[in-house]
DNA sequence: AAAATAGACAACCGCGATCGC
DNA sequence: CGCGATCGCGGTTGTCTATTT
């Protein structure tokens, strides 16, 4: 006698999203900002359920998302965090900016689990899955913690590099509290990047007639995806990258090219957004960290403290947008 | 070249948590 | 305080692509 599925209605579309749907969704969120998902399908004119819209946005269209190509540092970090937190993918994702919980979960299930299993078979399973030939039972707690600390330092360095302010440029800071600011933010550039990638894939699968595509995308853009963002300041690097992308996309229609002009092709520009997102996620993680429930609470707190201390130490260069630690009483104990 | 199989990943589903009335 | 609506998370499934036979 469970609750009936929210998407169990007639006329609600399921399955793969089309580029048109993506553009409608991005366009809508560009104007109104994310949130109030219940109203999104109706207001945006999408034949999807609210859940599907939210999922599509958070896992695929959201700016600042990096997909695929996990680095070894990221993998190590995921393995460490999985050992500490278990299958709490959202919490793990909060420590990996630009990665979504779904992406991490998929990567874990398809790659890392096998990797660990393989290592388990050849050298004996170790909690970090990478470097020990002894079983975890044989390693003393002290040894394991030292090893954990070493690897965490490596992952920390990688994270620090990834978040380096030098890599971000020209992205206006998002202020989620002000919905209209979304419309002016360059953050949508990487949404379009994601869409563009998906469009290429989609074109491979089902080549469209240029005419119909043109019309369809013209309608889309006139409906709300303005070129305003495209006109925002972009660096020379972005320009050259755009050119390169255009070369690879000759077969695409003019409408596609206007989409390319709309975006920056530099996902690192979304670092500010990623930071704000990861901060939010960290806040939620802080909320859900319940020492009385979590057997690894000590390690978890250590890890969190490491992360937040680092952020605090880099305060000058590395400022969380929107929600700063020192403004939040929840983090007093960490500062 | 075609069929079968495996791998990868996007999306769905169900449940618990949270929010607002 | 109770209840319904909504959101967010994790597990699972479905589909597409690549590889092997």
TrEMBL record:
Feature: compositional bias, Polar residues: 163-180, 226-235
PROSITE patterns, per database record: HTH_MYB, MYB_LIKE
Principal place of residence: nucleus
Boundaries of every HTH myb-type domain copy: 9-61, 62-116
InterPro entries hit by this protein: Homeodomain-like_sf, Myb_dom, Myb_TF_plants, SANT/Myb
Spans annotated as Disordered: 160-184, 226-248
Chain ranges of the Myb-like domain: 9-61, 62-112
Keyword Hydrolase: no
CDD domains: SANT
Domain of life (superkingdom): Eukaryota
Cited Pfam families: Myb_DNA-binding
Biased composition (Basic and acidic residues): 236-248
Keywords attached to this entry: DNA-binding, Nucleus
Subcellular location per the Swiss-Prot or TrEMBL entry: Nucleus
Protein name: Uncharacterized protein
Organism: Hibiscus sabdariffa
């Amino acid at each position: 006698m469970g609750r009936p599925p929210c998407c169990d209605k007639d006329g609600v579309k399921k399955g793969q999203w089309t580029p048109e749907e993506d553009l409608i969704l991005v366009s809508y969120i560009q104007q109104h900002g994310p949130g109030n998902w219940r109203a999104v399908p109706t207001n945006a004119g999408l034949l999807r359920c609210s859940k599907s819209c939210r999922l599509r946005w958070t896992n695929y269209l959201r700016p600042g998302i990096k997909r695929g190509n996990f680095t070894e540092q990221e993998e190590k970090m995921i393995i460490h965090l999985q050992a500490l937190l278990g299958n709490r993918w959202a919490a793990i994702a909060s420590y990996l900016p630009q990665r979504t919980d779904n992406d991490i979960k998929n990567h874990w299930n398809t790659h890392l689990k096998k990797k660990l299993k393989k290592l388990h078979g050849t050298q004996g399973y170790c909690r970090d899955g990478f470097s020990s030939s002894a079983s975890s039972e044989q390693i003393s707690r002290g040894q394991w913690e030292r090893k954990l600390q070493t690897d965490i330092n490596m992952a920390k360095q990688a994270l620090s590099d990834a978040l380096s302010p030098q890599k971000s440029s020209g992205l206006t800071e998002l202020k989620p509290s002000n919905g209209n600011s979304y419309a002016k933010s360059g953050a949508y550039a990487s949404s379009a990047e994601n869409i563009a990638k998906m469009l290429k894939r989609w074109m491979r699968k089902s080549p469209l007639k240029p005419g119909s595509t043109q019309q369809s995308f013209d309608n889309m853009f006139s409906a709300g995806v303005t070129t305003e963002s495209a006109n925002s300041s972009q660096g020379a690097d972005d320009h050259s990258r755009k050119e390169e992308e255009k070369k690879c996309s000759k077969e695409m229609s003019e409408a596609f090219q206007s989409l390319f002009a709309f975006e920056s092709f530099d996902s690192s520009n979304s670092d500010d957004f990623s930071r704000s997102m990861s901060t939010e996620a960290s806040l939620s993680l802080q909320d859900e960290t319940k020492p009385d429930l979590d057997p690894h609470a000590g390690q978890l707190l250590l890890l969190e403290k490491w992360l937040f201390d680092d952020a605090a130490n880099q305060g000058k260069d590395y400022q969380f947008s929107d929600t700063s630690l020192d403004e939040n009483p929840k983090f007093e104990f960490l500062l």
